[in-house]
Design goal:
By secondary structure, this protein is mainly beta. It contains four helices and 16 strands.
């Protein structure tokens, strides 16, 4: 009986009536439990997913832990967008501890949106210097403790348009070399940049506020069936505010678009959580970060700097850093099984950053990457996928990623 869930008849798909099946359905079938009667596309109460974290990188070594997601609708599903939160706790053989709590929560009728990006890391990253042409051999590993508290609240003003503001704090303390001698550390990019800009070197603090705007026309939030989203924010950090070390600003503009190919989603996709997707889709993602003022080194625009850390797959956090950054990605999303249980993705992305001291401008050089992955539909009501991706970039960069919900 379980095998019957993996494939739906082609004739059923042609009639657009193939039932959606997720891993929870498969587990109930294995246990001979009755199927849930809740209609597809109509959210249930709280929808929870969890999976292990397993990975390895040259800085942290072998990493293990657990990640979980909760999704819910706080009001009438016809007028209230779906909320979700992802939390994770991971450890590494080199002593790293990483705690993440990130969320997007909508109140009833989507009147308010509250976003959070909160992290506590005892970790570090490789320091390569600024620009898109920094060689792999230039890497110096740095250790630090990192506290991030980013809380933003939006008010829906009209239709799909939201505006609001946030409090943003980033604190890097106990910054030190991981293994290199002091003379090599002192000649490296972090110390050189910090001294040139009058910043302390053992710790650097940023505290300030942001002004935010969002226009969201996506169908579904966790795995959008179609539609688009544009958002922009302007961050202002102040010297002396909550121990901030300098005055600096950063402007961010971002766009995402989701395009069904061939078969279009059914009308039920307009409900919170979405319904049956088109069998083939394209997803596009692009953003630009432009900074000014005296930006602390680790707060400069860099790869893997998005809230959920899913941009620039193939590269590690901090691999390419600069005063300005532009990023673009396209991803194909397709079904392997007719009932949506299994899927695949193929993606390509590229990053470009600036280095004012060397004269390198945006779009002078690029760091491209590409890869592919598999998807298993964990919960058809929240449209939550369990994901595994394999990515490859220039200069031998590569990565394997296990995650809950898609990259964007």
């Amino acid at each position: 009986m379980a095998a019957a869930l993996l494939l739906a008849p082609c004739s059923a798909l042609a009639q657009d009536t193939a039932p959606q099946v997720d891993l929870l359905d498969l587990w109930r079938m294995i246990r001979n439990k009755p199927a849930q009667a809740k209609p597809e596309g109509e959210p249930q109460g709280r929808m929870v997913a969890a999976m292990p974290i397993i990975g390895r990188n040259p800085t942290s070594g072998f990493t293990f832990g657990v990640a979980g997601q909760i999704a819910f609708v706080a009001g009438d599903p016809k007028t209230t967008r779906m909320s979700s939160a992802v939390a994770s706790l991971s450890f590494a053989t080199k002593g790293d501890i990483l705690v993440n709590v990130r969320f997007d929560a909508y109140t009833s009728d989507s009147a308010w949106l509250i976003e959070g990006d909160n992290r506590v890391y005892k970790s570090g990253e490789g320091v390569y210097g600024l620009g898109t042409v920094t060689p792999t051999s230039a890497r110096i590993d740095a250790d630090y403790s990192w506290l991030r508290v980013h809380e933003t609240i939006y008010r829906r003003l009209r239709g799909a348009f939201y505006a609001g503001g946030g409090l943003l704090i980033d604190s890097h303390t106990h910054v030190r070399p991981s293994s290199v001698p002091d003379d090599q550390w002192n000649a490296g990019s972090y110390i050189t940049y910090s001294q040139q800009h009058g910043l302390p070197t053992s710790s650097q603090q940023s505290s300030g506020i942001s002004l935010n705007a969002l226009f969201d026309r996506r169908v579904g939030e966790i795995d959008p069936r179609s539609g688009w989203m544009v958002q922009a924010w302007y961050r202002m950090s102040f010297n002396g505010f909550l121990s901030g070390d300098s005055n600096w600003q950063l402007g961010h503009i971002e766009a995402r678009s989701y395009v069904p190919l061939g078969e279009h989603p059914r009308a039920s996709d307009t409900a919170a959580g979405g319904g049956v997707p088109a069998k083939h889709r394209l997803a596009f993602w692009g953003f630009t970060d432009l900074s000014s003022g005296v930006v602390p080194y680790f707060d400069l625009p860099t790869t893997v700097s998005d809230t959920y850390g899913r941009s620039a797959r193939a590269y590690i956090m901090g691999r390419y850093r600069g005063e300005k950054m532009a990023y673009g990605e396209v991803e194909y999303r397709g079904m392997i099984t007719q009932n949506g249980l299994l899927g695949l993705v193929v993606f390509a992305n590229t990053t470009t950053v600036s280095n004012l001291s060397s004269g390198e401008k945006l779009f002078d050089n690029y760091a491209p990457a590409a890869g592919a992955g598999l998807r298993a539909l964990f919960n058809k009501h929240s449209r939550t996928n369990l994901c595994i991706d394999f990515a490859f970039g220039k200069d031998g960069a590569k990565g394997v990623y296990l995650a809950i919900q898609d990259a964007f």
